[in-house]
């Protein structure tokens, strides 16, 4: 059969169209499979990361418990109170079952049973007192743990130094010291003690019931694991939600603090109203996360109550069927009496109560796990400061020397590379260089706030690691480029420089800094509050206050970081005159971008590519011949 030319042309055209269609279909399918593979891989990686994070949080909580949770005195009292409470519960059930049996079966008069009723009342009172003692002991343990942990965290923050702290969000650190430490309260006060009683109390009750009915004891033991199993299943989700809630709280704290700090700038730009919606959105996100955690907590409580009720009902059905004669096993061949049945039924809820309480407090464990992981980050952070020793620093102006020092930030950016410097006693050295070039890092190495990655920092020929750093810093006056106020009185802000300074010394320092007229206008004098919630200071006044602090300091070394930055020419000349007065009889290292302060220096160096080279001032001929190469 022959094919017409027209049909042949159509078939050829259709065949030619199928090839690109098939290729396109294969390409689309391949892209779908690739996307599915990427999604599956991402899910696996997220699961692995989540599991690794949970394991890290568990280890962190174990470490905190091991290092801070040992309080033998209060722990012994708590354990004794809990055991005594269980004994009173068993005695109460036995007395009440005997009284009811006597009234119902023996038909004895109620008036003849006043002594058993008094004993029952005594058991109730003693049980309540034991519960109060147990709760108080748990609270005391939690208070002691949180106090020691906060003290350790503050010591860790001091050990890590200002260079580390400045890289963190102040809001996050505040949240860690306050909210996250408080999040451990429920774990140490209630959950951890309840772990002991979730084992001890059921075993004591089973030990009492077992001699009378092995079947009832078996029902209790068989149904008991249901509660912790479902508690763990529900708790897995709660732990992840709790971690997310803490992270959201940290972000919200840092974000809100940043907005507060930047509020003056926002007002200048008339942009403060636009940020209201942003703050509201962050708050709403945190509210939703909090409600999500609470929903899971309530769900866990409902699940535990359900299984506890089912287990108690099974025990009641067994004893009811046995009393009616439908069941005759589990009693060691003896007949079941009302007293034994009532005794076991009264103890059945008490058997499950410790497990239910453990489930109720399980969210406290999830909260503690989330908090412990964040706190461990601070405890394990590697200090960038030298460890310090005990060797005292010699009297008088010291010689400062950096020998082939190297330093790099954690991001891997090298700022100092084989850098050497010698500053003779009483010498004034000015250092110039681009912003971010490592000038402030160099000062912090001299001050002992940072540890050199290579080379040595020597004070009077001794490595700074061997010196008593506290004593060394007492000999140094540091003036930051951005002086800060603390939210306290004017006197407290000045005594940052010297804690034992008298009021007369403070007033003299204010006169030196040309703040006397401003001081006389303060309503409460030295007791006037500054900073947050108090009187604010302008940039020029802050710079003068910093000079007053330097004046108060009994220092042999002055480290000044951009002391005239952002000042007008007249104020700059005034600051330079005060620095010239302060530097008499002292060693000075001055960082500056501006040319005017260079006239205060005996030698001018420039930091380039991580190394110091000789430079020249605009007031004198080139200093290269005079400076020589740094030692």
From TrEMBL:
Compartment(s) where it occurs, according to its Swiss-Prot or TrEMBL record: Cell membrane
| GO terms (BP aspect) | cysteine transport
> Could you confirm whether the keyword Metal-binding appears in this record?
no
Q: Which GO terms describe its cellular component?
A: plasma membrane
What is its membrane topology?
Multi-pass membrane protein
The ABC transporter domain extends over 400-631
Molecular function, one GO term: ABC-type transporter activity
Q: Where are the transmembrane segments?
A: 76-97, 117-133, 196-212, 218-238, 296-319
Q: Which SUPFAM superfamilies match?
A: ABC transporter transmembrane region, P-loop containing nucleoside triphosphate hydrolases
Stretches assigned to the ABC transmembrane type-1 domain = 77-367
Keywords noted in UniProt: ATP-binding, Cell membrane, Membrane, Nucleotide-binding, Transmembrane, Transmembrane helix
Q: Per its UniProt entry, which superkingdom is the organism in?
A: Bacteria
Q: Which NCBIfam families does the entry mention?
A: CydD (TIGR02857)
- The protein, known as: Thiol reductant ABC exporter subunit CydD
What is the taxonomic lineage of the source species?
A: Bacteria, Pseudomonadati, Pseudomonadota, Betaproteobacteria, Rhodocyclales
């Amino acid at each position: 059969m022959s094919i017409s030319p027209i049909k042949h042309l159509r078939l050829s055209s259709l065949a030619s169209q199928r090839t690109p269609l098939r290729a396109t279909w294969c390409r689309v399918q391949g892209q779908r499979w690739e996307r599915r593979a990427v999604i599956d891989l991402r899910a696996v990686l997220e699961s692995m990361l989540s599991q690794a994070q949970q394991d890290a949080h568990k280890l962190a909580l174990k470490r905190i418990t091991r290092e801070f949770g040992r309080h033998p005195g209060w722990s012994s009292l708590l354990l004794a109170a809990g055991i005594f409470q269980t004994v009173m519960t068993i005695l109460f059930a036995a007395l009440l079952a005997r009284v009811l049996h006597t009234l119902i079966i023996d038909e004895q008069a109620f008036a003849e049973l006043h002594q058993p009723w008094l004993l029952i009342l005594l058991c109730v009172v003693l049980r309540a007192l034991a519960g109060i003692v147990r709760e108080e002991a748990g609270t005391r343990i939690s208070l002691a743990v949180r106090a020691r942990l906060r003290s350790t965290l503050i010591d860790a923050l001091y050990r890590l130094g200002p260079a580390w702290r400045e890289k963190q969000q102040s809001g996050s650190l505040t949240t860690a010291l306050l909210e996250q430490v408080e999040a451990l309260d429920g774990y140490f006060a209630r959950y951890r003690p309840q772990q002991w009683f979730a084992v001890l109390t059921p075993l004591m009750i089973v030990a009492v019931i077992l001699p009378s009915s092995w079947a009832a004891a078996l029902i209790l033991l068989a149904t008991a694991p249901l509660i912790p199993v479902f508690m763990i299943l529900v708790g897995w989700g709660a732990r992840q939600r709790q971690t997310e809630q803490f992270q959201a709280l940290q972000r919200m704290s840092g974000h809100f603090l940043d907005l507060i700090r930047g509020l003056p700038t926002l007002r200048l730009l008339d942009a403060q109203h636009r940020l209201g919606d942003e703050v509201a959105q962050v708050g709403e996100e945190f509210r939703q996360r909090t409600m999500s955690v609470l929903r899971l907590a309530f769900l866990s409580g409902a699940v535990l109550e359900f299984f506890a009720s089912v287990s108690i009902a099974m025990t009641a059905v067994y004893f009811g069927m046995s009393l009616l004669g439908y069941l005759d096993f589990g009693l060691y061949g003896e007949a079941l009496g009302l007293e034994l049945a009532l005794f076991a039924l009264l103890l059945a809820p008490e058997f499950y109560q410790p497990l239910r309480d453990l489930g109720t407090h399980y969210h406290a464990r999830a909260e503690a796990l989330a908090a412990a992981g964040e706190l461990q980050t601070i405890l394990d952070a590697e200090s960038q400061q030298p460890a310090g020793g005990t060797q005292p620093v010699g009297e008088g102006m010291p010689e400062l020397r950096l020998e082939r020092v190297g330093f790099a930030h954690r991001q891997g950016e090298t700022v100092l590379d084989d850098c050497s410097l010698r500053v003779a006693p009483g010498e004034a050295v000015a250092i110039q260089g681009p912003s971010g070039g490592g000038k402030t890092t160099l000062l912090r190495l001299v001050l002992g706030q940072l540890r050199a990655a290579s080379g040595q920092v020597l004070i009077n020929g001794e490595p700074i690691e061997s010196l008593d750093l506290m004593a060394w810093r007492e000999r140094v006056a540091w003036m930051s480029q951005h002086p800060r106020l603390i939210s306290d009185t004017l006197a407290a802000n000045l005594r940052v420089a010297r804690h034992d300074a008298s009021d007369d010394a403070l007033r003299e320092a204010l006169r030196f800094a040309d703040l006397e007229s401003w001081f006389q206008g303060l309503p409460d004098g030295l007791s006037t509050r500054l900073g947050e919630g108090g009187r604010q200071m302008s940039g020029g006044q802050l710079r003068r206050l910093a000079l007053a602090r330097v004046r108060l300091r009994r220092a042999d070394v002055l480290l000044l970081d951009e002391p005239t930055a952002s000042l007008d020419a007249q104020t700059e000349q005034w600051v330079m005159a005060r620095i010239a007065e302060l530097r008499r009889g002292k060693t000075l290292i001055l960082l500056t971008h501006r040319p005017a302060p260079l006239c205060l220096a005996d030698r001018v160096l420039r930091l380039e590519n991580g190394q110091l080279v000789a430079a020249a001032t605009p007031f004198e001929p080139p200093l290269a011949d005079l400076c020589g190469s740094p030692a």
